[in-house]
Design goal:
The protein is mainly alpha-helical. The strands form three sheets. Strands 1-2 form a two-stranded parallel sheet. The longest helix has 23 residues, at 248-270. Strand 3, helix 5 and strand 4 (112-116) form a beta-alpha-beta unit. The chain is built from 26 helices and six strands. The protein is globular and about 80 Å long.
Length: 487
C-alpha cells in the first residue's frame, strides 16, 4: 500500500502496456477468524493516501469489495490481461488457498503472475544457512524508485467499475477512528522520521514500559504489515542517520528487531501449519480444558489483575500494546488461565499490526510449545511494579482504581475494608477479585511444561525445529534458549 520502493509496481511500469492499480477487499477474508474492521479501516485509509498522490494527475487506484475471482473474471472478459504483478503474501491458510486457486485461474487464461519478495522472507527456502546474509543483501539493495513521469495507469469506465466494485464498505471501515494510528504512506514516513531523529533516544529504556513505549517505540509495525513503507527503506533511512545518532545502541537494537521481524515471518513461511498445530508435535497430547468464563474475563479486562486488565482494555480501544505486555497477557492466558493458544484469535483481531507470520510463531513460543525456546511464565505483579511503578498506565485504563495509591494498586485485592472505603473502590463490586491465584496457577503450569520439556519426544522434535528454522542450531545463544525462565 505505497508508491515508494514498490517492486511489483516498478516492474509493471517497465512494460509497454497500461497498468491497472487494483486492491480487492475480499468478503471471505474479512469474515475470517483473525479479521477485524480496524485492519480494513487502515487499508482504506492507505488507499485514500495513495489516491491523494494520484488525483492531481487524474489517475485512480481502484478498489473492489468482492471476491478475487469474480473481479478477475470480469476483467479478463473485457481486457486482454498480459500479467499480474504483486508481492508474495505470507498470510493465513485462507489466503494461501486463494492464491493456489488464482494461480490455476491465471494459467487457464494465459495470464502471467509475477510475485516479488516481501521484506526478507524467501519463498521455498531450502536452508537457513545463508539467510542472514541474504537478508542484509535485500535490505541494502537499491530501492525501486518510480518516477511519476513513468505513470501509465489505466482508467476504467465508470459503468464497468460499478459492475466489478461490489457492495459498499461499512461506515466503520470508511470513517476515521482517532483511537487508532492512521493508515498511509505519508504517516509511515512521519513516524519513521520522528523516531529516527528524536524518539529513538529512549527506545531501549522505554521499550518494556506499557505507557512510555507508546512514544518510545517506533510504532512502525502496522505500516510494515500493510506495506505503507518497505522494510528496506526503514533499514536504509535508519543507517543513514546512525553515525549522527546520540544513541547508537538504541538504533542497533531497533535494526536487530527488523531482522527478527523477518526471522519469524520466515519460520511461518517455511512451516505454516503452525497456524493450527503445535510446531513441536510432541505437545499434541497436552490438552487444556476450555473455560469460557476465564476467556471472557480476559478479553473484557476483568480478570482482577490490574496490569493484565489495563493491557487488554488498552488493546481493544487502540490496537496497540508493547511487546512485553503482549507476551505477558499471552502468558497469563496460556499458563495462569491454562487455556489453549489456539483460542487467541481474539488477539489477532485486536492487534492493528496483526501479521500472521509473526503472530503464530510468537504465540507458540510464548505458550511454551516449541520445545526449543525459553519458557517465560510472566509474573504480572512483578511486571506491573517494574514497568508501571506509579500505576499511571493502570489508572488510565482502569479508572475504577484511580484513587488507589501506587504502592497498593498492583494488588488491590489486598486492600482492607477501610482502605476500600477510603479509596472508593469495593473489591468484588467496583473491581473484581482475581479469577485465579497467580502463584498457584504459575506453579501448576510450570510443573507441567517442565515435565513435557524433559521428554525424549519433545527433545527430538526440538532438534528437527532447530535444524529447519535456525541458521546455526549449535550456537551458544540457541543453547541458552533451552533454559526455562520465570520473568
Amino acid at each position: 500500500m505505497r508508491l515508494i520502493d514498490h517492486e511489483p509496481l516498478f516492474h509493471a511500469l517497465q512494460q509497454p502496456l497500461l497498468v491497472l492499480l487494483l486492491y480487492i477487499f475480499e468478503p471471505s477474508v474479512m469474515a475470517y477468524d483473525d479479521s477485524d474492521e480496524r485492519h480494513w479501516r487502515f487499508v482504506f485509509e492507505s488507499i485514500q493516501d495513495i489516491q491523494k498522490r494520484l488525483t492531481p494527475k487524474q489517475f485512480q487506484l481502484y478498489y473492489c469489495h468482492n471476491e478475487v475471482e469474480n473481479v478477475f473474471s470480469k476483467l479478463a472478459s473485457t481486457f486482454d490481461i498480459h500479467s499480474v504483478f504483486s508481492h508474495q503474501e505470507v498470510g493465513n491458510k485462507l489466503t494461501f488457498d486463494r492464491d493456489l486457486h488464482m494461480q490455476g485461474f491465471f494459467q487457464k487464461h494465459s495470464i502471467i503472475w509475477k510475485e516479488y519478495q516481501l521484506h526478507g522472507v524467501i519463498r521455498k527456502l531450502k536452508s537457513r544457512k545463508d539467510w542472514d546474509k541474504r537478508w542484509t543483501q535485500q535490505m541494502t539493495a537499491v530501492p525501486k524508485i518510480i518516477n511519476e513521469s513513468q505513470w501509465n495507469f489505466l482508467h476504467l469506465d465508470d459503468e464497468f467499475y460499478n459492475e466489478i466494485k461490489g457492495d459498499s464498505l461499512d461506515e466503520s471501515i470508511t470513517q476515521r477512528n482517532k483511537n487508532f494510528q492512521q493508515g498511509g504512506e505519508y504517516w509511515a514516513w512521519r513516524y519513521l522520521d520522528n523516531f529516527i531523529k528524536e524518539r529513538h533516544i529512549n527506545y531501549s529504556k522505554h521499550i518494556s514500559k506499557p505507557l512510555l513505549s507508546r512514544t518510545g517505540c517506533s510504532r512502525l509495525s502496522p505500516y510494515l504489515t500493510y506495506g505503507n513503507i518497505s522494510m528496506r527503506m526503514v533499514y536504509q533511512y535508519t543507517m543513514q542517520h546512525y553515525d549522527l545518532s546520540p544513541n547508537k545502541r538504541a538504533l542497533s537494537n531497533f535494526v536487530s528487531r527488523l531482522h527478527w521481524h523477518c526471522h519469524f515471518m520466515q519460520k511461518f513461511e517455511d512451516e505454516c501449519r503452525m497456524e493450527f498445530e503445535n510446531v513441536n508435535k510432541a505437545y499434541d497430547i497436552l490438552v487444556k480444558p476450555k473455560n469460557e468464563a476465564y476467556i471472557q474475563a480476559w478479553q473484557n479486562g476483568a480478570t482482577g489483575i490490574p496490569i493484565v486488565d489495563a493491557c487488554m482494555r488498552c488493546l481493544v480501544q487502540t490496537g496497540y500494546i508493547n511487546f512485553r505486555m503482549r507476551a505477558m497477557v499471552v502468558s497469563f492466558f496460556v499458563f495462569n488461565l491454562w487455556q489453549d493458544w489456539r483460542e487467541l484469535h481474539f488477539l489477532a483481531r485486536q492487534f492493528l499490526d496483526y501479521e500472521p507470520g509473526i503472530h503464530y510463531p510468537q504465540i507458540q513460543m510464548q505458550a511454551g510449545v516449541t520445545g526449543i525456546n525459553t519458557i517465560r511464565i510472566y509474573n504480572p505483579i512483578k511486571n506491573s511494579e517494574d514497568h508501571d511503578p506509579e500505576g499511571l498506565f493502570i489508572k488510565k485504563w482502569l479508572p475504577e482504581l484511580e484513587k488507589i495509591p501506587p504502592h497498593l494498586i498492583h494488588e488491590p485485592w489486598k486492600l482492607s475494608i477501610m482502605d476500600q472505603q477510603l479509596y472508593e473502590c469495593e473489591i468484588g463490586k467496583d473491581y473484581p477479585f482475581p479469577i485465579v491465584d497467580v502463584e498457584e496457577t504459575r506453579k501448576y503450569a510450570s510443573d507441567i511444561v517442565w515435565s513435557f520439556r524433559k521428554t525424549d519426544e519433545v527433545k527430538e522434535e526440538g532438534k528437527r525445529i532447530l535444524k529447519k528454522h535456525v541458521s546455526n542450531p549449535n550456537s551458544k545463544s540457541n543453547a541458552r534458549s533451552k533454559k526455562t525462565k520465570l520473568t
